Amino acid sequence: MALPDAPTTLPPAPTSRRTLDVETGDVELDALLADAASTAINRPHDSLEASQAARERAEALGNLPGRAYALLCEGTALSLLSDHESALVVLMQAQTEMEPLGDLRGRSLVLGSLASVHVSLGNLEDALETAGDALRLARALGDTEQEAWMLAGLGNSYLDLGETDRAMEVGERALRLFGELGDLNGQARAHTVLGGALRHLGRLDEARIHHESALRIAEEAGTPINTARALHDLGVLEEEAGRLDAALALHRRSLAFRKEVGNRQAQSTSLLQIGRVLSAKGDDEAALDALHEAEQIAADIGAVPRLADIEAALAEAYERAGRPADALAHLRRHQAHREAFLVARTQTRLDVVQVRAEAERARQEAEIARVRTEELGAANEELSRTLRDLKAAQSQLVQAEKLASLGRLSAGLAHEIQNPLNFVANFADLNAEVATDLLGTLETARRTGEPPDLDAVEADLEAIVDNARRVRDHARRAEGIIRSLMGHVRDVGGERRPTDLHELLERAVSTALGRTAVHVERDYADVPAVEVEPASVQRVFVNLLENARWSVEAQAGAAGDGFVPTVRLATAPVEGGVEIRVEDNGVGIPLDHCTRVFEPFFTTKPAGEGTGLGLSLAYDIVTEGHGGTIQAFSREGDGATFLLSLPA
Predict the structure, then answer these.
(1) Which structural domain, as residue segments, surrounds residue 634?
(2) Taking Cα atoms as reference points, which of 294, 300, 290, 224 lies closest to residue 262?
(3) Which of 8, 193, 252, 568 could form a Cys-Cys staple with 521, CB 3.0–4.6 A?
């Protein structure tokens, strides 16, 4: 059985064209691309070298169109040199890079070359789909030459699929277009398609006319790859006519041209045909030599579909030679290669789908960028007018903002120092009451002449000392607040030292919740001491607890009897630090406010009950001052949770 040639299509543009007719803006790069295109058919090694040099120059220049076209030429040259797997990878990259350029002609050329590679790899369905896309693009662009080449490629693919009528139809259209263009290489290819279709229909004399026309035109054009193909097709006709000596001579001539060009897959095809003819002639040793040479070439280039065909031919040849064991071994290899081919074809189709998706995404992104550019251009003038208006009002706005900021800062300062001042006043009042009691005790003793109750006197004096200490602590806290506010909680030079966070939490509980009915639950883990500025971090805890107290008291007023206002404190070690959790069962925070509670001057409290600086300052202390994090989680009516982390 005679096989179709491999590859069944001459790779389309750019190898079908003598020039690319592309300008990249760099003379040297354009020259390299032109050289790569013009040498592809007859000197693919030179074409590969020129295309790789073009790619390197394009990359050095950052020339994206130049790189895309260089990849196109490189992939096509690799295909002509039978390195189809590498060609597929390079051409799919070219497709991806061509899409965002918006170059429809370049996209059509890439699709054409991809279609040819798919045929060589045996992926006929992908080849037809890709060639169909290229054909539609060529027609939309009015690119008659590319349209004709895609028709010729489709014709050979239809032959491989057994769709002879469609092959005849597109072959005739291709021949007409190539004739109008005066393209000799294209005419030779179109005759090849028509001759193959007629041979499948059993009209061998008509097929011979087309193949002889293809040979004559190819020799006139001086294109070895087309000459070799025509000789191959004529050899197949001679085989089918039983003229084996004539067939052998034609296949050997075809092989010589294919060696000249360097197309190794086509060489393996010629050797396969030579081996089959020799086997049919009874020259078993010569047949096996030719087939094993074909086997080696196909294995070297990874042409799995062709290798499967060669193994089948070897099995037949060994069977004819009376060596059934060898025949069985090669038949098994044939089956193994067929299975490997099916697996590889599935993977290739998956790769193609992925690349198409990436190319489409790149195209969409390029289109979005173009639309945005147009929209931005139209908006620039409007923005300029707006900018002029803004500048006119800028000085007034700046002054107004300064005054507003001063007012907010003053209100925030009052909010922050109000609590410690309240404590100072309360403890001062307590001292006054205790001192009054003490004076009364002393006055009674003086009046009665009885000694005073020393235990009571001692207790009063201790209370005075303790209250005085608390007054001092809260006065210093107020002083620290003022200093911190002046820098908006930047480092004020406070000493950092390893600190027991549980101790700070307990101090904050005593300060914020000491005289309230709020129930405090604790879940303290064994956590390490953390290096912090104690006063600042304690102030964070106090702020959180004061907010929690306000929230649970508000909830208690709404819930009535039976509600237990509760605050839960928990600590836990985490990677790189310590986590502190402050929870309450209060009124909660609306969900859309959780991300805003740390903004300066934002508050969820009723007017007059908060200025919104407390949590803002807490945020700065934790994040900027100590490199930690603080987050709020809540649902309105369901309590709130503040989660802090401090690096250990």
Answers:
(1) 497-647
(2) 224
(3) 568
